[in-house]
What we know:
Radius of gyration of chain B: 19 Å
CATH architecture of chain B: Alpha-Beta Barrel
Strand content of chain B: 5-15%
Number of strands of chain B: 8
Order of helices and strands of chain B: HEHEHEHEHEHEHEHHHEH
CATH architecture of the largest domain in chain A: 3-Layer(aba) Sandwich
Distance between the termini of chain B: 13 Å
Number of helices of chain B: 11
Low-confidence stretches of chain B: none
Largest sheet of chain B: 8 strands, parallel, barrel
Low-confidence stretches of chain A: none
Shape of chain A: elongated
Distance between the termini of chain A: 26 Å
CATH class of the largest domain in chain A: Alpha Beta
Helix content of chain B: 25-40%
Oligomer: heterodimer
Largest sheet of chain A: 4 strands, parallel
Amino acid sequence: MIIGQQKPFDEIWEMVKGHKQLTVFGCNTCVAVCHQGGNKEAEILASLLRMRATQEGIDIDIKNGGIERQCEHPFFESAKDLLGESEAVLSMACGIGVQFVAEKYMSTPVYPALNTTFLGDVKTDWHFTEKCQACGDCILGITGGVCPVSRCCKRLFNGPCGGSSKGKCEISKELDCAWQLVVDRLEALGKMDDYEKIAPIKDWSKDRAGGPRSFKLEGF
Amino acid sequence: METKTNSKLEKIFKSGVMAVTSECGPPRSSDPAHIITKGNLIKNHVDAINITDNQTAVTRLCSLAACIHLKLQGLEPVLQMVVRDRNRIALQADILGAASFGINNMLCLSGDHQSFGDHPKAQNVFDLDSMQLIQTVRHMRDEGKFLSGEEIKVPPNLFVGAAANPFADPFKIRVPRLAKKIAAGAEFIQTQCVYNLDKFELWMKGVVERGLHEQVFIMPGITPMRSVGMAKYMARAVPGMDVPEELIKRLSGVPKDKQAEEGITIAVESIQRLKECKGVSGFHIMAIEWEDKVPEIVERSGLYPRPVVD
């Protein structure tokens, strides 16, 4: 899923404090799971902003609300009135949701409350880790189910580099060396011979490098 | 003796003589005087001189320009090239540029992560990895083609090297990884600094068992310790470095003003021991900002004089 982290409160405040009215708008799917941008977090952030406004003697009408997902049109039905009457929106969604709102409400300023950080898993209720970079050409089938694009800091297709030490990456003792994990998996699968196959040069045109991506279903 | 390139290093390897290389880091300045002085300091004691490529991810005068400065002095540079900072377009362009100046050797590397350097906020490239860079330069040389498949009218003629770190983990893939680099096209190998000789010899045993030493020229890396502080720092902070406790003890056992001398002696003893190790074809002496000690190490190790090659 998409993981995001709330921006520093002061940064959020600086973006929105010039408005007379603001709607803090939650997105209750991915970023709710990581406790950063759900409807509950929108309510809390709205309270904090109201307190700040009071402290600074600034008059802003701050409402809060939210929908299940800010990246699909049907979910917006229930918030039609709220958003239509908003002077500005502080979206708690990932970057996709922020842009979706901006596209729907051409003349309404929309601000991001979150930094969209990565595509990751939920290791525990409070621990999220990056697992995919949507590079557009998945090679998990040859790397034992461990992604070197997102999990190796040099995204090596033929790793590990010389900085792999005791299973950890050279940039941090907290970070697993992805290629140690690849080797461990290949060994568990009895496929160590595959280690010596040289992974071919990647076609990055399917990645971000090739420009914004989209696809359409034929005959749908 | 059949050589594929005009590399002096290749000729020396293939004549069966132990080769000696060293390396110089370019300055953090546009003044080339420093690198030229360093090169001239060691030129009679080594066969070729590596020029590092923004080592430790710190911005410096570029490796290619520094190689050209040495080449113009009549020295034999080894162009180090990391895949961290350039995509395949820039890498291939620099390979052609190097060849156009008669640079005959290249070392293909990943490069330290930028978080270690002076621009930790930089983007990294890693369009190719070091294995694929080896393939690329061999493809350009041997097939006379770009990665795109298009023809190169005058292909670059470089002798191709790669790095190996026998001390990184997991150890069990360190011999297979070397085999992989050879399969990719590596013709010579310079290793990480060797301090744990037992482990290096264990790795070499695996290399020899697979006959890999007959397919590639292997040069253990030798870096003299200047002090016990340096040894402790390398043991603690440099990723993939194996500094045994005995070495630290030995340096601690001599007075501070004699530690540098002891470090040189340890380097000389290491070379003398590894000369006897089957599969070792030469030495890569990396005296970091201590290039003036290279001649002494080479002489005391019995590697001087260097052979004269046409």
